[in-house]
Structure to design on (225 residues):
């Protein structure tokens, strides 16, 4: 089954404790992206990747890191989480060309930072 | 600044009562406009892509249209299973690798 998976689905952590949210897709998509979703603000793009070893900042990259060492995986790293990073996070992927933004989204990771 | 505004924030319909959702956008050249559906606790699901003014796309009870300043998602004779949040997003020609999302419209269809 074609899908984007994220782990963990739920995470409660404390300020400053490094964490990684994993994202994997099995559709051989070149483009992958991370979003956060907050009430009243909609989805905001954090980082995206056009291909392996090619990443770039979205609209809200501060406090986040990403890497793309393999085509299928695109982990999101919070080196020192803070309470304002409490949010619902989505990973997405899509084919690069004709269906560039017909994105497939993962199920989401709900993060709480206390 | 590129911006997407959706209205209304929430919409309650009776089953069979047709209506429209609005997505107004301000971008420095539109490359594409996208509609997604999001169910509670799930990731958004792609519905439509529109590329130029005058274009229309249909899927079951949904029809999306595009003008130079806005897009409409028309829902004809909705059913309770159409209840969801509908998201609009634009891809600008400048910074075309990014998507800008609106805050969404929460639709509730009651029997």
């Amino acid at each position: 089954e074609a899908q984007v998976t994220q782990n963990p689905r739920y995470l409660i952590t404390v300020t400053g404790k490094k964490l990684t949210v994993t994202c994997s897709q099995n559709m051989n998509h070149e483009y992958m992206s991370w979003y956060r979703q907050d009430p009243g603000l909609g989805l905001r793009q954090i980082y995206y990747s056009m291909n392996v070893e090619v990443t770039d900042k979205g609209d809200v990259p501060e406090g986040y890191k990403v890497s793309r060492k393999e085509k299928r995986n695109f982990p999101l790293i919070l080196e020192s989480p803070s309470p304002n990073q409490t949010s619902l996070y989505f990973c997405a992927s899509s084919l690069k060309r004709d269906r560039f933004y017909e994105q497939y989204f993962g199920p989401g990771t709900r993060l709480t930072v206390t | 600044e590129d911006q997407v505004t959706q209205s209304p924030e929430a919409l309650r319909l009776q089953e069979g009562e047709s209506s429209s959702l609005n997505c107004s956008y301000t971008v420095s050249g539109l490359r594409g406009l996208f509609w997604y559906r999001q169910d509670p606790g799930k990731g958004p699901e792609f519905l439509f892509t529109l590329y130029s003014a005058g274009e229309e796309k249909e899927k079951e009870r949904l029809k999306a249209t595009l003008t130079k300043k806005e897009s409409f998602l028309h829902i004809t004779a909705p059913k309770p299973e159409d209840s969801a949040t509908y998201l609009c997003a634009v891809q600008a020609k400048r910074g075309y690798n990014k998507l800008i999302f609106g805050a969404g419209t929460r639709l509730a269809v009651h029997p």
